[in-house]
Design goal:
The model has no long low-confidence stretch (mean pLDDT about 75). Helix content is about 0%, strand content about 15%. It is mainly beta. The chain is rod-shaped, with a radius of gyration of 32 Å. A three-stranded antiparallel sheet has the order 2-1-3, with no helix packed on it. The chain has a domain at about 5-40.
């Protein structure tokens, strides 16, 4: 069940309430009794659980993802970038004296 944040517009009383998604929103403030208790818009906080996800995944130190090299930024000096691969010299052949 999600936890909803409520705040009274009259007295400023705030409270987090554990409710079903199908429950009607609360309207009466428990502190002052006025019908100005409103549900706040908050950032969703959640935690993934189950056998397919772990809190340590993708934080490094694991073997599930290979390490990647840092990419040079577009504004970086081109001389500082890794040198380009040069082609190998062509093989020379000498005529054999048969």
């Amino acid at each position: 069940m999600p936890i909803y944040a409520y705040r009274c517009e009259a007295c400023g009383f705030a409270r987090d309430v554990l409710q079903k998604m199908s429950d009607a929103p609360l309207t009466e403030c428990t502190a002052c009794g006025k019908p100005t208790f409103k549900k706040q818009l908050t950032a969703a906080g959640f935690q993934l659980k189950g056998s397919g996800w772990y809190a340590t995944d993708f934080k490094g130190g694991g073997t599930s993802a290979p390490a990647t090299a840092p990419v040079a930024s577009a504004g970086a000096d081109s001389s500082a970038a890794a040198p380009a691969a040069t082609p190998a010299p062509a093989a020379t052949t000498t005529p054999s004296a048969d």
